[in-house]
Design a protein that fits this description.
CATH class of the largest domain: Mainly Beta
Helix content: 25-40%
Strand order of the largest sheet: 1-2-3-10-5-8
CATH architecture of the largest domain: Sandwich
Structural class: alpha+beta
Oligomer: single chain
Number of helices: 6
Number of strands: 10
Distance between the termini: 33 Å
Radius of gyration: 16 Å
Shape: globular
CATH topology of the largest domain: Jelly Rolls
Order of helices and strands: HHHHHEEEEEEEEEEH
Largest sheet: 6 strands, antiparallel
CATH superfamily of the largest domain: Jelly Rolls
């Protein structure tokens, strides 16, 4: 992980412990949560035990099934201007082997988010889908294998993929090098936190 990411995230929040605490509070079984999040109970069990890490989109689904939002699992960013400066990156505070850097700013009536993703060798993001929206991936560096429905595509530097989120999709880096991806998607994954709403 980049040095700057380590500096900005000195303490990682444990997704597994937060997930289990919320699930227990709501009285949900793993299977009930899995049904609500459209993920497998086995995968969620691994997440709770720290053996697997959900992708951002999976985390959105899990949060929804837990009757909360993404801010329960990650530290929301401070209010920002319309510009993201390269020398002041915002890394999403999540204990994942994938490094997520947020590229979009906070604007009124925001409809999309944009992330720079650094996927280490051997890392596979779980299969996810959302009820509505679009995903766009562009490979900046490296190579990944992307599954979209029943199709499997090898994407290399300069390649892109654009699809509806209702179709099951996943990404895996089977190469020996870190892959850098630009992701842009709708609808909004990161709703404004209460602090951001109050600051408007």
């Amino acid at each position: 992980m980049p040095t700057s990411a380590k500096k900005s995230n000195p303490v990682k929040r444990s997704i597994g412990s937060l997930l289990k605490a919320r699930r227990t509070m709501l009285g949900l079984t793993l299977q009930e949560l899995a049904d609500g999040a459209e993920l497998s109970a086995a995968f969620l069990s691994q997440v709770e035990r720290g053996k697997a890490t959900p992708s951002i989109v999976s985390l959105i689904n899990i949060a929804g099934a837990l009757e909360t939002d993404i801010h329960y699992f990650i530290t929301p960013p401070a209010p920002t201007s319309l510009v993201r400066r390269a020398d002041n990156p915002h890394y999403i505070d999540i204990d994942s082997p994938v490094v997520y850097k947020r590229l979009d700013a906070k604007i009124r009536n925001q409809q999309m988010n944009a992330l720079l993703m650094e996927v280490p060798p051997g890392v596979e993001l779980p299969v996810v889908h959302r009820a509505e929206g679009e995903d766009f991936f562009y490979v900046l560096e490296g190579e990944v294998e992307q599954s979209i429905g029943d199709e499997v595509f090898t994407l290399r530097q300069g390649d892109s993929a654009h699809h509806n989120t209702q179709v099951d999709h996943s990404v895996v880096n089977k190469s020996g090098h870190v892959a850098k991806l630009l992701w842009v998607g709708t609808p909004l994954l990161f709703p404004p936190s209460q602090n951001e709403i109050d600051s408007d």
